[in-house]
What does this fold into?
Amino acid sequence: MAARRLVTPDQPPAVRFVLGVYEFLASLRFAVILIALLAIVLGLGTFVESGYGTEAVKFGVWNTWWFTLLNALLGVSIFCAAAIRYPWKRHQTGFVITHIGLLVLLAGCLLSQRGGIDAQIPLLEGEQGSKAFEDSHHFTLEVSPAAGRPSTTIEPIEFRSGPFNWREYWQQRSWLPWGLAPRDTGVVYDDDGIRLEVLDFYADSTAALAPSVKLRVGSDSFAGGAGGRGVWMPAELALQPDPLRATEMRHRATVGGGTLVFWKTASQAEADAFLAGLPDPEVGYGDKGQLVLVADGTAHRYKVDDVLGKERFAVEGTDLFVEVTDFEPKLSATRVRVRRGAEGRDEELVVLADLPEVTIHAPRSGVYGTLWIERALADAAERMQGKGRSRIDIVQAGSAGRHELLYRTWQQPKAFGGRLPADGGPVPAFSMPMGALELRVDRFLPADALEVATLPLPFAKEKAASAKRRAARVRLTVDGVAEEFWLAGLPIQPAQASLGPPGPTERRTVEGRSRTVSVMLVPDAVDIGFDVKLDNFERRLDPGTSQASHFSSVVEFLNASGSPLVKRPVTITMNAPVDFSDPATGRSYRLFQESFMGPWLPGDELFEQFTKGRKDPPDRLEASVLTVNYDPGRGVKYLGSSLIVIGIFTMFYMRAYFFGPRRQPGVT
It folds into this structure.
């Protein structure tokens, strides 16, 4: 069934060109090239789906413009290969049917790609919902003008983000063709003085308080560590809000028999004094300790026993006058009055040996104090308070984006300190009979004020979309006023559950000259037109493990008035989906049992939020996650596949060439 030659030498050049292209598109050579390319792409898609999941292969392969173009070229090739042989002979019947089936199949795939729904419905037992959430988000803007005028909402602002953290595309997965998939980077909205830009994106993230530092204390030389890498003890320190003083407060942790203390210095002078205020063992400690006062960058050291209760004295080399007025043994604290010049005004310091982070300095006079007390073996009560133990003080110093970590180690009777490398470089920590311990920084989150920082999480193929925390770094400009911040996506939550209004990381507001604009990152949702009610969710575990071996959901389908659409509830299990046709729209949906959320127990934050207002809350709470699939091209694909089978059956099994011209008897 060779194609006819259409190009002849006597035709005009333009006609020969058009017919030549037509012949090439209908040729076997072009078909072989396309089929080979598609085979490679399908193999790549299988590899991507195996390694990164369905959403990744949809984003990077199936839903890209270049894959659609390959399929369109295949359709053109199939059509031209059949059309160039027109008028068809009877013996070409199977050939024509097969090519029509291929075209119908491609049309069905295009319908599925463009109009299909693959979304999730999380449901709590006894609750119902009709919203299915897709694995994508969009931005919304709420514009609040001057008082007395109504607010307006701008939505949806489309945002194609992809399945990975954006930095991973060129750091870990640059060898795959992700760059050919569309991502909405840069400006996504710009109108009427409002401009929204996306600078970075995390497909999954977590929140952490800042300032904070994640540390470990230990040594690679100690035996018994995992993989032979020594023994390390982790600690995470983050400043916490102090409700009494409306400021940040310190954070403490106990690691390896010592205490770690973290706080933030208020000025560069205090940071410099932090390092300069180390004790000198030669001065001695006495019973009440050694007081170190740092003024104008110079440390002045005194034994409290020698100066307590004495008359005011001058600090050598300065215009300062100092009086040590009191010592409180229970708090290990001393009270000091300082004065600049003979006619100056007194300023008071309260210096605590065991709680240096709450010491009250005298910044107006430029004096910063530290108290070091050497003790004998502490009793049990003192050990509970951290007294008499080794201690490492860590502070965040600097401001305006130029932050650093400083540390000092106190292991009586000596102390030392310096700058703490934020890149994980080791510094000496404690000395022990079994060896020396080192201190390393695993993560440092600096901040000028207490805030919630957004940290990326590594890609996890098995993690459900409903469990991921999306986050985008955006720049919102309103009437020339621009702010940059991380914006967390609103969580996908079970139907009928309310987590309250968006949190401060989920809704950010920028104030312009005469209006304010709020932005949110909202999951895309589809209203399937009917309610799914979860009557019962059952989960069974493998014996002796916490792994689920089976989970299923008993559901009802309800219309808008709450009346059942089917006579009795149906059961959806892991390997047995349920098909349901909405009588109102005629759409056919397929529901799968995908995963679950929880369990949540009384006392859990989400349990209390989800059961708020219930008269009889359950002993435990779980949510079933159902996948809702709508495929508008399913019937078309079935038709195309049937035509292909019929065409092949006609060509081969019914010996289609029987329909060809019959040979005359005696003609060879």
In short: The chain is about 20% helix and 40% strand. The longest helix spans residues 28-52. The mean pLDDT is 86.
